[in-house]
Design brief:
Blueprint (H helix, E strand, L loop, with lengths): L5 E5 L10 H10 L4 E6 L12 H17 L4 E9 L18 E5 L6 H13 L5 E2 L11 H14 L2 E5 L7 H10 L3 E4 L12 H10 L9
Helix pairs in contact: 3-4, 4-5
The chain binds zinc ion (2 copies).
């Protein structure tokens, strides 16, 4: 059941995805998704193939063409950007403000304490709206760090992503985050048109835990 869903994390061939933007959009329309975010990596973030203002402009032009051709689908022009160990987000040519949505993600393995510390620093800058695959690169988890992270996420309103490619190992953190008032988002992290909207497990998890899923303004 994907009809009416939002899939806020999809890679196109502009980064490490295999599919063209129009194929992704056609698939989302056929699945009757409500909103998608084309969220590519741009150099120097991990997984980027390309960077530079011209590439980002060209990608935006393709997104705008699809918006005109498929007006019933909301298509967000998004980026997935590395949260670096010093808490800075990796730069993108032209800045992060140009995107409708920014996903900040850890792409380096870290223990729980360094994770929480880099995350808190990154959240202070107010540059991203979703924490991508929050535990995908966590080598350890301590509840004290989880509490620090969850409180900072709740204060900033940044959503915790339930990601289609990474299994959730530390469900205790989700309970903690829920109790702190955090919001959550759904993202398949699709790298191929066939996995667009693949969110069954995440939707069930959100519903069984009664998690508050962020709403995108149309
Ligand atoms: Zn990622
Ligand atoms: Zn991704």
């Amino acid at each position: 059941m994907t009809s009416g869903l939002e899939d806020l994390h999809i890679h196109s061939s502009y980064s490490d995805g295999a599919s063209e933007i129009e194929e992704i959009v056609q698939r989302a329309v056929s699945l009757k998704l409500k909103t998608i975010a084309i969220a590519d990596h741009f150099w120097p973030s991990m997984g980027s193939r390309k960077g530079g203002a011209n590439v980002i402009e060209q990608r935006r032009y393709e997104i705008e063409t699809c918006r005109n051709d498929y007006p019933d689908l909301t298509i967000l022009d998004a980026a997935e950007v590395d949260i670096q160990s010093n808490g800075e987000l990796a730069p993108v040519a032209g800045g992060l403000e140009q995107f409708d949505l920014v996903i900040g993600s850890f792409h380096w393995f870290t223990d729980s304490t360094r994770w929480a510390s880099a995350l808190v620093k990154a959240l202070r800058k107010n540059e991203f709206q979703i924490l991508g695959h929050w535990d995908g690169y966590l080598s350890s988890y301590r509840e004290e760090d989880g509490k620090i992270a969850a409180e900072a996420l709740a204060d900033s309103g940044v959503a915790i992503e339930l990601n289609g490619r990474y299994s959730v190992e530390h469900t205790g953190f989700l309970e903690l985050a829920k109790s702190c008032g955090c919001v959550f988002s759904l993202g398949s992290d699709s790298h191929d048109v066939n996995t667009v909207g693949s969110l069954n497990f995440q939707v069930k998890l959100a519903s069984s835990m009664d998690l508050n899923i962020m709403k995108i303004k149309q």
